[in-house]
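Hi,

Apologies if this is the wrong queue. I'm a grad student, and the batch job for Substrate-binding domain-containing protein from Paracoccus onchidii produced an output file that my downstream script rejects. I'm not sure whether the problem is my script or the file. Here is the sequence I used:
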Amino acid sequence: MGKRQVSARDVAQLAGVSRTAVSRAFTPGASVAKETRARIEAAAEQLGYQVNHLARGLITANTGLVALIAAEVQTPYRSALLAALTEQLQAAGKIGLLINTDRSDASVAQALKQAIAYRTDAAIVLSGMPDSSLTETCLRNGMQLVLINRDDERAGTLMIRVDDIGAGRQAFAALAAAGCRHIALANSAAGTASLQDRAIGFRQAAAEAGQKITEAEAGPTSYQTGLDLGTGLLSRKDRPDGIFCTTDLIACGVMDAARTRLRLKIPDEVSVIGFDDIEQAGWESYALTTFRQPVEDLARTAVGSLVDLAREHNLQARKTLPVQMIWRGTIRR
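Support response: The file is valid. Your script probably expects a header line. Output copied below for reference.
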C-alpha cells in the first residue's frame, strides 16, 4: 500500500489547533491570528502538507479548473495561443485542463461532456462548435463558455474574434498596390469561421476592384497543403503573381513550391502574404509578410472575461480584436 497522504487534521494535531483553523489559514482573505498562522505553516512545512484544491472546489462548487478545448495543438499558432492562455490562467489562480480534439463538432461535444464531468468552472473553446443543447447543459451546470474565433448567439457565452474579414480585404489591397495583376487565394479545406472570413474579405475587395481572382482550396492548415497548392497554382499557364495564403503554414509551403520546385523568385515573380505571424514567418529563409494574430490580447481577454461571465450569468458579448500587418520581404512595395 502507498503512504497515506498528509491531511489537514494531521497539521491541526501537530500545530495544536482546530481543523477549522487550518482551513482558514490556507484560505485567501480568511482571518487568522498571526501566531496561529505561523504555527500552522510551520507544521505544514514539517509534514509536507499541500492543500487539496480539487477537493475544496468540489465542496464550494468552484474548482478553479478551466477546460481548454482545442484541435491541431501541434501547429505553431495554436501552441502559442495555448501557452498564452495557460499563463494567463495561472496568473489568475486557475488551472488549465487541455482536452485535445479533432476539428469536428462531435469531438468538441465529447470534450465538453468531459469538462462537465470534471466539474470545470469554465471552458474556452478553440475548435469546432458545440451543439446548442449541449451549450445549454453547460450553462445550466454553471459552466462559463468562452469561444475564440467561434460563433454562438446564446446568452452566457463570450465570443472573441479577430478582424479576419478586414485582414482579407487588406491583403488584396496590398497585392494590388504591389502591381499584381493575376491574384490568387490559397486556402485550407478545414472550413473554420476564421478561414472563411479571411476568404470572404479577400473576395469582397477583389469584387469591388472589378478583378477576378483564382482560388485553390485543399487539405488541412498545414505546410504540405501549401506545398501542394503552391505547386498547382504556380504551374498554371495563367500563373498568379500574387497569392494570399490564409495561414502562415500554407504560405511557407507555397513559398517553397515557388522557389525549389518552380525556380521562381519571391517577390520579383510572385508576391506572397500569410496570416498568423508564427515564429517561422520571421525566419530569414521566409521573411514572410503576414498578419499578426493578437495572441496575448486574445488570451488576456478570454481569461479576464471569466470574471464578467461569473458576475453576469446572462452576459452575451462579442469582442473583435484587430490584426496588424507585418511587412517583410515577400511582397513588392
